[in-house]
Amino acid sequence: MASIVFLDSPVCSGFSYARDPEGCDVGDYSSSLQVQRFLIKWFTDHPQYLSNPFYIGGDSYAGKGYLVGNPITDPKFDENFQVPAAHGFGIISDQIYEAAMQHCKGDYVNPVNQMCAEVLQTVNSTYGYYLSYFWMNNKMTRDALGIKQGTVSEWKRCKRELPYPYDMPSSIPYHINLTMRGYRALVYSGDHDLQVPQLSTQAWIRSLNFSIVNDWRAWHLNGQAAGFTIAYANNLTFATIKGGGHTAPEYQPEECFAMAQRWLANEPL
């Protein structure tokens, strides 16, 4: 189906490392250039793959590629839909949602008063990914991944101490540029994600103003609805994964595998 190169990026995230601590000092633009240099060198060393179709993909903050899941794209979309999505899921009460609407005036990204800040803090109180630390730092996991001894002492899901400037506040201009040039794009959303709700992803896709080629419909696996999909002009496909969280393949691997397999084969979902 596909050959996969898995890359920890930016440098010093995951199990990647730099011999010089200053090597960890990268941002959106500089890390993108590092990935580009890596890929050029990798294909130089493995020219037998040059004739294959090539796709860049990732989930969450890796949403700057071209097979992207719950991609962080623009805070005015991503963050502003978290509160309505939490209410739609029944996670927060009508009272909390109404208080957020009253005090935040539709802006859930930049609280303009103390009452707004307090209600957003209530909405954001969650408990997730606790067990990932135990699994990723287990010696068997590190050995299976081939992590070099002595390079990274501890895996952290989010290394907040990295000197990483978020110098690309929105990737929407890049999505427009690439899709207008005809590059195939699959954007998918686990529909139970609150960090980047499917509502926000649908909103920025609609802001591109592409015409609809195949309208909203369910797609199926083993006789069951696995999600919904819609196809736009310029080879842009959007799909949802029923029951999927922020990193959808982690939660619904069978459905995501089928989705990727069909899309890579140029078949309808």
Mean pLDDT reading:
91
Broad structural category: alpha/beta
Low-confidence regions: none
How much helicity do the residues have? Answer: 25-40%
Shape: globular
Largest sheet: 6 strands, mixed
The level 1 CATH classification of the domain at 56-74 and 170-264 is: Alpha Beta
Encode the helix/strand succession as letters: HEEHHHHHHHEHEEEHH
Distance between the termini: 16 Å
Named CATH architecture of the domain at 56-74 and 170-264: 3-Layer(aba) Sandwich
**CATH topology assignment of the domain at 56-74 and 170-264:** Rossmann fold
Spatial strand order of the main sheet: 1-2-3-6-5-4
* Secondary structure tally, helices: 11
Rg (C-alpha, Å): 20 Å
Family: Belongs to the peptidase S10 family.
GO molecular function: acyltransferase activity, transferring groups other than amino-acyl groups; serine-type carboxypeptidase activity
InterPro entries: AB_hydrolase_fold, Peptidase_S10, Ser_caboxypep_his_AS
Keywords: Glycoprotein, Signal, Zymogen
